[in-house]
């Protein structure tokens, strides 16, 4: 989160100072990139030392951190009533997220095994894992069919595809991380084929997740995608950890119920925080003037971005991308009307623009 704020500061500084340099030529952007890499490496290594069901929900901490940093670095001034109205939901969401995080960390699974290649192979060939993978493949194929063939571009469908892939990613990341840590400690695991199978699956699922998320971001609001994706991905990751790594086998019913309660509270908090965003402006009508006929056309439906219109100018645009000169309005002959007394008055047509 700090790395994202640093990189955002780099972009804002360049724009505010009208600096012609590219963003990748600034030191602050590279510092942010370095922090991003360090953070991702730390998350990757953490899978080797803690249960999957405990690491996956901790992504909610980043939501709290981003809300706090966004509030600290916000430079706008608010009146007390506006401040309370704007941030009260975020404060409630952060409080719920923190409380839920405390519950699932306190009552989460504590057992953890060393993930050698032999142990991973035993987990893979177990019938619970094979049944889980079979059901997941069937569900993924059905959702992909409705998404591609039936044009079911609902957010839930797209995020479910991402979450199903994410559960496989979580399994493979934990396996690769565990074997890599054991190799660094002296027990070499890189000679086993299962390591490279897990590595290929990890990279492939990450790439396809990024593709589906990119498609979702072009259709829906990013805050809604964030909350739904976190909830579904975390839920499937917990299920994957329970089935593949048997993380809840030695836990009591009370601990499992409190863990699930903490996850639900955390999900609610994340939803409140991500949904408390400023709404984007709705589409506003605009007018285009046909250059050849001089006929104004009002566009009251369509995209928020004005579409290209050949041979026309759009009111409100700053740049004429077509580099053409507006055509002169057609001349209207003068009309002469007689008034009592015989004095002629010349009247010309008046063109009014709104």
From TrEMBL:
GO MF entry, a single one: magnesium ion transmembrane transporter activity
Protein name, as recorded: NIPA like domain containing 3
Keywords recorded for this protein, A-Z: Membrane, Transmembrane, Transmembrane helix
Signal peptide start-end: none
Annotated transmembrane regions: 28-49, 55-74, 86-105, 125-147, 154-173, 193-212, 224-246, 252-273
Stated family: Belongs to the NIPA family.
Gene name of the encoded protein: NIPAL3
Membrane topology: Multi-pass membrane protein
Localization of this protein: Membrane
Domain of life from the UniProt record: Eukaryota
InterPro entries for the chain: EmrE-like (IPR037185), Mg_trans_NIPA (IPR008521)
GO cellular component: membrane
Keyword Repeat attached: no
């Amino acid at each position: 989160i700090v790395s994202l704020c640093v990189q955002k500061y780099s972009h804002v500084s360049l724009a505010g100072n009208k600096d012609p340099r590219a963003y990748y030529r600034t030191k602050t952007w590279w510092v942010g990139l370095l922090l991003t890499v360090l953070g991702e490496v730390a998350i990757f290594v953490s899978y080797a030392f803690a249960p999957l069901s405990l690491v996956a929900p901790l992504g909610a901490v980043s939501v709290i951190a981003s809300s706090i940093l966004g509030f600290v670095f916000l430079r706008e001034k608010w009146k007390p009533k506006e401040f309370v109205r704007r941030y009260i939901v975020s404060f409630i969401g952060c409080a719920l997220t923190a409380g839920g995080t405390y519950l699932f960390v306190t009552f989460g699974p504590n057992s953890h095994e060393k993930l050698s290649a032999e142990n991973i192979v035993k987990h893979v060939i177990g019938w619970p894992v094979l049944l889980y993978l079979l059901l997941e493949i069937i569900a993924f194929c059905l959702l992909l069919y409705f998404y591609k063939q039936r044009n079911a571009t609902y957010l839930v469908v797209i995020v479910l595809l991402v979450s199903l892939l994410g559960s496989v990613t979580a399994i493979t990341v934990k396996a690769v991380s565990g074997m890599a840590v054991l190799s660094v400690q002296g027990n070499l695991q890189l000679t086993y084929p299962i390591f490279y199978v897990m590595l290929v699956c990890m990279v492939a699922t990450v790439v396809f997740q990024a593709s589906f998320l990119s498609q979702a971001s072009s259709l829906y609001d990013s805050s809604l995608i964030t909350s739904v994706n976190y909830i579904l991905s975390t839920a499937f990751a917990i299920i994957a950890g329970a089935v593949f790594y048997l993380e809840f086998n030695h836990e009591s019913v009370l601990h499992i119920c409190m863990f699930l309660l903490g996850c639900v509270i955390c999900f609610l908090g994340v939803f409140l925080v991500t949904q408390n965003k400023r709404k984007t402006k709705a589409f506003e009508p605009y007018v285009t003037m046909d250059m050849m006929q001089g006929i104004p056309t009002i566009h009251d439906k369509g995209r928020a971005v004005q579409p290209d219109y050949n041979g026309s100018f759009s009111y409100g645009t700053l740049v004429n991308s077509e580099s053409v000169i507006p055509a002169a309005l057609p001349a209207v002959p003068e009309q002469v009307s007689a008034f009592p007394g015989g004095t002629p008055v010349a009247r010309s047509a008046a063109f009014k623009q709104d």
